[in-house]
Amino acid sequence: MKFKDIVVNKTHKFSIGIEEDTGRYYVSIPVSNQYIDYEEYYEITNELFETFIKDIHSALDFVNKCRNHKNDNLLIQKPGSDRGIPI
Predict the structure, then answer these.
(1) Residue 83 host element (H or E)
(2) Using CB atoms within 10 A of its CB, is residue 28 exposed (0-12), middle (13-18) or buried (19+)?
(3) Contact, 63 vs 14, CB < 8 A?
(4) Phi and psi, residue 66, nearest 5°
(5) Measured CA distances, 74 to 10, 11, 26, 69 (Å)
(6) Under a CB-based contact definition with an 8 Å cutoff, are residues 5 and 19 in contact?
(7) How far apart are CA 87 and CA 20, in angstroms?
(8) Contact call for residues 39 and 30 (beta carbons, < 8 A)
(9) What is d(CA 36, CA 17) in angstroms, rounded to the nearest whole number?
C-alpha cells in the first residue's frame, strides 16, 4: 500500500490523503505502542475527503472519534494485538 498525504495538520496531529494503489481516501493519526510509533489509516468517502480538504477543521470531530476507537470499522489495516495509543 502506498499512502500519500495530501494535507498534514501538525497542530492536531493528523493527515488526509489517498492510498495510491486502490484510490481510497483516508485520514491517518499517529499512534505508539511499546515498540514503535506508526499511523492508523481510516477510510473516508470522496465526499468527506473533499469536505476535509476544503475546511481542515471540519475533520476534527472525525479525528477525535478515531482516537477514541469510534471509527474502528473504517480502519484500512487492522491493528495487531499490541495496538498503539494515539500520540
Answers:
(1) none
(2) buried
(3) yes
(4) -65, -45
(5) 22, 23, 9, 10
(6) no
(7) 25
(8) yes
(9) 22
Dist CA 46 CA 40 (whole Å): 19
Would you state the cell numbers that stand for residue 27, as one nine-digit string? 485520514
Residue reference for cell 515498540: 35
Q: Give residue-wise pLDDT tens across range 14-67.
A: 999 999 999 999 999 999 999 999 999 999 999 999 999 999 999 999 999 999
Q: Does pTM surpass 0.70?
A: yes
Q: Which amino acid would we find at residue 23? A: G
pLDDT over 90 at 13, yes or no: yes
